[in-house]
C-alpha cells in the first residue's frame, strides 16, 4: 500500500507528495494518478488518532492507497492540536461555565471541527462518487467523520465545554445532511460519524483524571475498533453516529 500526502489548508486538498515504504517523491497538484486497489483518506493525520489510522491502514492492506491530509506536510508537528481540538494553551480552553464562553473560541472550534471536514467532503465529492463505481473490493465510498459523544445533544448530562460540544454537534448535522443528499441523488457514498472513546493522547492528558478505570484507550485499540466499524459499514448505516464499540449514539 502507498501513502499520499495532501496539503489541507482551508479545506482545499492539493496533492504534494507520494510516498511508498521505500521512497519519497514530490509531484505537482496537477499530476494525474491512477488509483488502483481503492483509496482511504485520513484528514488531520500528522499525529495522534489520525496518524494511528494511517499506520493501521498501511499495515492491514497490501493493495491500494492511503491519502493523508495535513496543513503543512513538511512541518506538521502539532497539527492535531488544531484538528481534534480540546484546548489550545492561551487560545481556547474547555468552558466549565457559561461565563467563560467567548465568541473567538466558538468560531475557532466551529471552523476546525465542522467547517474543515465539510469542505473536504465538498471538494472530494466527485472522487467519492467515482470510488463507488471503481470496481474495488467495496462498491461504495465511506466518509467517516471523527465526532465525539459530547457532541450529542440527547446525551448531554454534564453541560460545559460549550465550544467543543457545539462544534461537534455542527459536524454531526452537516454530515447527516450530506448523507441525505447523497442518498437522494443515489450516489454510492455512505456517511457515518464516529466517537473514538477517551484516547490516551497529548490532547486528552489534562482531562484524564476523571476517566473511569478501563475507559482510557490506547490509540491502537481505538483505531482498530473504529476501522472495524468502517469496514463493516453498509448502506443502512448511512447518516448514523456510532461509538467505538459499535453502539449507536443519540443525536
From TrEMBL:
Pfam families: adh_short
GO CC, alphabetical: cytoplasm
GO molecular function terms noted in the UniProt entry: oxidoreductase activity
InterPro entries (alphabetical): Fungal_SecMetab_SDRs, NAD(P)-bd_dom_sf, SDR_fam
PANTHER family registered for this protein in UniProt: NAD(P)-BINDING ROSSMANN-FOLD SUPERFAMILY PROTEIN, SHORT-CHAIN DEHYDROGENASE/REDUCTASE
Stated name of the protein: Adh_short domain-containing protein
Species in which this protein is naturally found: Cephalotus follicularis
Amino acid at each position: 500500500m502507498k501513502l499520499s500526502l495532501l496539503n489541507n489548508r482551508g479545506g482545499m486538498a492539493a496533492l504534494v507528495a507520494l510516498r511508498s515504504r521505500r521512497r519519497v517523491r514530490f509531484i505537482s497538484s496537477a499530476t494525474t494518478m491512477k488509483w488502483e486497489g481503492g483509496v482511504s483518506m485520513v484528514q488531520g493525520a500528522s499525529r495522534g488518532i489520525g496518524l494511528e489510522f494511517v499506520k493501521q491502514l498501511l499495515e492491514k492492506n497490501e493493495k491500494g492507497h492511503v491519502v493523508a491530509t495535513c496543513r503543512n506536510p513538511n512541518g506538521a508537528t502539532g497539527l492535531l492540536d488544531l484538528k481534534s481540538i480540546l484546548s489550545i494553551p492561551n487560545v481556547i480552553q474547555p468552558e466549565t461555565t457559561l461565563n467563560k464562553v467567548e465568541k473567538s473560541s466558538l468560531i475557532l472550534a466551529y471552523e476546525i471541527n465542522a467547517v474543515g471536514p465539510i469542505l473536504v467532503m465538498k471538494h472530494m465529492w466527485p472522487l467519492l462518487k467515482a470510488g463507488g463505481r471503481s470496481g474495488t473490493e467495496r462498491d461504495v465510498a465511506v466518509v467517516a467523520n471523527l465526532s465525539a459523544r459530547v457532541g450529542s445533544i440527547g446525551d448531554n448530562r454534564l453541560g460545559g465545554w460549550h465550544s467543543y460540544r457545539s462544534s461537534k454537534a455542527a459536524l454531526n448535522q452537516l454530515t447527516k445532511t450530506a448523507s441525505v443528499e447523497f442518498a437522494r441523488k443515489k450516489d454510492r457514498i455512505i456517511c457515518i460519524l464516529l466517537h473514538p472513546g477517551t484516547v490516551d493522547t497529548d490532547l486528552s492528558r489534562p482531562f484524564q483524571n476523571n476517566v473511569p478505570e478501563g475507559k482510557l484507550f490506547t490509540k491502537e485499540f481505538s483505531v482498530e475498533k473504529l476501522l472495524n466499524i468502517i469496514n463493516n459499514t453498509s448502506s443502512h448505516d448511512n447518516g448514523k453516529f456510532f461509538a467505538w464499540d459499535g453502539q449507536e449514539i443519540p443525536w
